[in-house]
Amino acid sequence: MLEIISGLLQKLRDLVTSIRASPQRINKFKTILKIYGLNNEEYDEEEIVFAEGSIITNDLLPILDCKTRWSSAFYFVKRAVKLRRAIDEIAKDADLRRKEMENEDWDILSEVLEFLEEFATITKYIEGSGYPTLSLVVPMYNRLLTILEDVSQCRHRSIHHPLIVSAAVAGLEKLSSYYDKASPIVMAATFLDPRLKMEYFVDNGWDCGGESRDAFQPLDENLITSRMAEEILSIPATSASSERAFSVGKDVFGIARMSLKPETVEALVCLRSWYKLGIIAEIDVQPFLYENGDEKFVEEYSESD
């Protein structure tokens, strides 16, 4: 079953690749977009981010997914479904006809799109920065498990295709195995998050019983839990935000700064990230930059926001 969905995605991938392979075909595709009134459709910012350079011009063109990027399959299918009429029209060309998508193919892809949408939304939120994310792991795990259970047991309002039901069964088994291996730290983070606390576990049927305690014990525990919250809630749920911060490391180097020490580069990257998040002010950053860089770099750095 899963092989069939993979084959369907590959079929669409081959068609999109063929459309994008020729400048003449791209121009024809743009003409078709205008005929169907699709040239004024807007694309999401996430579609550009996950396109891996697939946006050739400002025109709305089909994009390709990327195996190394989370949710890229979702945005790949989303763009294709949006441009279905234009893709079907250009697929009537003699050299593309064998790759033409059937109506049933599009029906399956539409359900795949709906199925993946919640995963893409949660992934985007959990990879964010500027707010606690580790405490959201348990609630979001449970949300995804609920979706997978509904689809796998045919209780979902609109996703019923046997192929996707089969995929949901496999996904439920895999996600459950990860859930069972979850670190106690994520449970602690959920408990320490003021938005969730113990009420989240109680409301979701967890056994949260415990022994009665001395009435003054909470006074001593407040200091401990506040320190724990500072330590634990500052841990990101994924490495995405850190990777984004350090991916700009190449911008730090220049002809006049090739001899910077690793510690200095790390400090510059961290300062830039903290400044953009509003953790520190520009006036706090400038002395370090002047000491370890030059005035031009300070100006470029300040404008990089």
UniProtKB/TrEMBL annotation:
Keyword RNA-binding in annotation: no
Keywords: Metal-binding, Nucleus, Zinc, Zinc-finger
HAT C-terminal dimerisation domain ranges (all copies): 224-275
Presence of keyword Transmembrane helix: no
SUPFAM superfamilies xref list: Ribonuclease H-like (SSF53098)
Location(s), subcellular: Nucleus
A Gene Ontology term for the protein's cellular component: nucleus
Annotated GO MF terms: protein dimerization activity; zinc ion binding
Domain of life: Eukaryota
PANTHER family, alphabetized: ZINC FINGER BED DOMAIN-CONTAINING PROTEIN 39, ZINC FINGER BED DOMAIN-CONTAINING PROTEIN 4
Name of the protein this chain belongs to: HAT C-terminal dimerisation domain-containing protein
